[in-house]
Amino acid sequence: MNQKRINKVLEKMEERGIDYLLVTDPVSIDYLLDYVNHPGERMYVMVLSSKGNHQLFFNNLFYVEEDLGMPITWFDDTDNAPALLADYLKDAKVIGVDKNMPARFLIPVQDRVNAKYVLGSLCVDEVRMQKDDEEKALMFKASEMNDTAMAEVKRLLATDKTEIEMDEALLAYYKSLGASGHSFSPIMGYGANGANPHHSCDDSRLKPGDSIIVDMGCIYKGYCSDMTRTFFYKEVSQKQKKVYNLVLKANEAAEAAIKPGMKLSEIDAVARNIITEAGYGKEFNHRLGHFIGKDVHEFGDVSSVSDIIAKPGMIFSIEPGVYLQGDFGVRIEDLVMVTEDGCKVLNSYPKELTVIE
Hints:
Distance between the termini: 52 Å
Order of helices and strands: HEHEEEHEHEHHHEEEEEEHHEEEEEEEE
Largest sheet: 6 strands, mixed
Number of helices: 9
C-alpha cells in the first residue's frame, strides 16, 4: 500500500466533501495499493474512507500472496457482492464513484444506500497527474527504450515489410529491450494510410514517395511511453517537406512555451495557431496532447477546452499533425514533463526530416 499516495487522495476527498470513495479502475488500485489484478467481470473495489476505515472487496478467485495493508472483504461467485458493499456504506452521506464502475454493481448499491453520489475519479486522477520521483524515472526509462526502438523501426522500414509485419517485429524488439510489450497498438501509416490519425496496421507495403507515420510506445515496469515520428520512403515532395516543417515548427514552439502556471489550452493554441495560419487548421483534427503514465491515455488533455494548469511533474504528449485525406499525413510527437521553469522532453530521437533509402 502506498500511504503517501492514498493520503493525497484523502485530501482531494476532503476538498470535495466525499466521505467514501469507490475506486474500481484496476490501474488506479494498482497505483494506490501496489497490487496488479485483472478482475474481468467480477466486482473489484477499493473503498477509501474519510474516517480511515478503508476496505477492499475481493472475489475469492483473486490471488493475494502478500499483506496489502488494508482489510479485505472476501466473497465468491454465489454471494451478492453489491449487497456486501452496500452494507459497508450504510452510514455514507456522500459517495464518490469511479468513472469506470460498472452499472451492474453501482445501481444495486444505489438502491440500498440513500446517499448523494458524485463522480469521484478526480480525487485519484489529479494525484496521478503529477508524477513522483519513482514514476519519473520509470517514464524516462520507458521513453529511452522507445528511442532505441524507433531507430530499429527506421532500419526495418527499408526491408520491405508490411505494416502488420512491422508491428510484429517491433513487439519482439521491445521485449528484447526488457519492455513487457506495446503500450498501445502501434500505428504504421504508409502513404494515404497516414492521413487517418488512428489507422490500424494492415498489409500495405511502401511505395516511393510515401510518408510513413510511426506512432508507438512500450510498457516498462508498468509505465508507458509514446512517440511519433514521420519518415519518407525513397523520395519526398516539396508539399510533403512544407507540411513536415510546419508540423515540426508547431511541435517545437509548443514545447518551448510550456511552463508552470500556464493553461494547457494556451499550449494547444501555440501549435494550433501556427498550423491554422498556414492554411491547414481543418487538417489538424485532434487535441494537441494527452496525459500518460500507468495508462497510455490518462485523465487530462492538452486541448482548446482544457482548463488544467501546468504543474511540475505533469507528463503529457505534444503531438501536432496534419492529415491530407487520400494523400499523406504528418505527425510529430514527444512526451514532455513540466519542470519548475519550463519542461523537459523525454524523447531524444531526432526530429529532422528523414528519407529512408
